[in-house]
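Suppose you are handed a protein chain with no further information: no name, no annotation, nothing but its sequence. What can you learn? This example shows the usual starting point.
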Amino acid sequence: MSLRPTIDFLLHHWLGAEALSQRERFADHSRETFDAVLDTCERIAREKYAPFNRLVDTQEPHFDGEKVILPQATHDAQKAYAESGMLSAAQDYSVGGMQLPYTVEAAANAFFAMASVSIGSGMLTTGNANLLMKHGTDAQRHVFALNEFNGRFSGTMCLSEPQAGSSLSDVVTRALPDGEGFEADPLGPRYRLKGNKMWISAGEHELTENIIHLVLAKIPDADGKLVPGVKGISLFIVPKKLVDTEGQLTGERNDVALAGLNHKCGWRGTTNTLLNFGEGKYPVRGEAGAVGYLVGQPGRGLQCMFHMMNEARIGVGMAATMLGMAGYHASLDYAKNRPQGRPISTGGKDAAAPQVRIIEHADVKRMLLAQKSYCEGALALELYCARLVDEQHTGRPEAADDARLLLEVLTPIAKSWPSEWCLEANSLAIQIHGGYGYTRDFPVEQYWRDNRLNMIHEGTHGIQGMDLLGRKVLMENGKGLQLLAGRINATIERAIQVPELAAHANALGQALAQVGAATKAAWATANPTEALANAVPYLQAFGHTVLAWIWLDVALAAHASAESPTRTGRLGAMRFFFHYELPKIGAWLQVVRERDLTCAELPEDAF
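A reasonable first move is to predict its three-dimensional structure. Written in structure tokens, the prediction is:
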């Protein structure tokens, strides 16, 4: 079973991606060039990634005392990806990019995520370089970002610390000016960093000539004290190996040392590290302290880093989606070929009758439909968000601003919803395989393990829920939520004219009204403790409502297409989501509306 027909339908029949070529930035592109990119990425994923997904799971990265060792397959895959040009696909021609719409780039990267998310395909490197293109100086863009785009260097994001976790206001990595004239360094104001960073993906390896760390740290005040809270955080470029103003290696190692590799449940093919900055293992010019170059203004580092974090959140959502999709394809193939059980008739089972394939059992169809509705729906959501990115960058001013606000509201959903429900799809894939699914003889247990991290990656559900209910739906006087409601209502108005979809349109309208009422009720007392006590149930209900909207909109495109098994399947998945999933929002929103404090008020000693 191929992913390509689903990608093609969503890109062209639903989103109308080809129309983007009418915009000046994408004028050199057409359906033909878009297809060529998809063809190339599909081929590389099939040849360099998919065959080695199990290999990188079993041959974990290890440190030999000098360097981290990864399988040759990982080196080959990363090289093929860099040579394809996908690291700089959306960049200007002037810097070696393709000026490809992000919508098409996201669709193309889906092939790699499905083939082997554990090998990776440069998400952090691209995000790192994109941040520098936005917030860096000309020299920083030339020396660091462009060499990341061409594959010479790779990139990381260094936020968390062992003692702080997700609480970035508690980071204690320090950055001190590096001697006289520090502010005049051509690569940016030069500092010495000391501290520890935990959970750093791709933090140490030999896949590229250099690794460019983007590090959050605090500059002490005049009394040598760190400014409390996130307002004191600054952002620094800390290369593993020092470079000159042309991006060439100077031959000197920066004071960044691997303290250890984290051994994870999944994503085992990607190194995950604890890094020590400035401990003196690799002194620079005779001194301990990692050399770092300030990005942007002091104390404004988190604002810069959010550029990369938001990209990463959508990237995590796509990774979760495609892991779910991989499990769905595997379990569908298994269900079509595994004979077991017999049909039940009015007279009961006939033990003498031949066995049937398990796909003929209603409960197996239920599990397959659930996976299809979760994974195809999530893929549509991620591509819709990618289309909003293109609108934000190339649309008319009002449309661009609307896209910006819609992305603000949808980003917590794009990250968290696939991370929860495509993980559930992986669980159902194991269930369909029965006892075999729990063994390493079949790939579905690895898909589940790989996907379990995504509920934590780039902000847990609790963080995303508080971001959504505590900030995103309130920002700019609720304009983003109003814009989203407008888009949903437009789909409802179209669908209600189609007899086959009218009931679902009405159900979506009722769900939207429930979400709106719960949002107001949550904040009725203006008490954040009460409002946010059930932020995750709110996130779940909001996400299910968004996915119901996405499915209804996709169903409109499917309904207008010619009769085919795929048309029947998409309409069936839409009906499943409305009948089996959307009704769940009632229970989630009840505790939100009532500002239920059962969880918040239970004393610690009662657990």
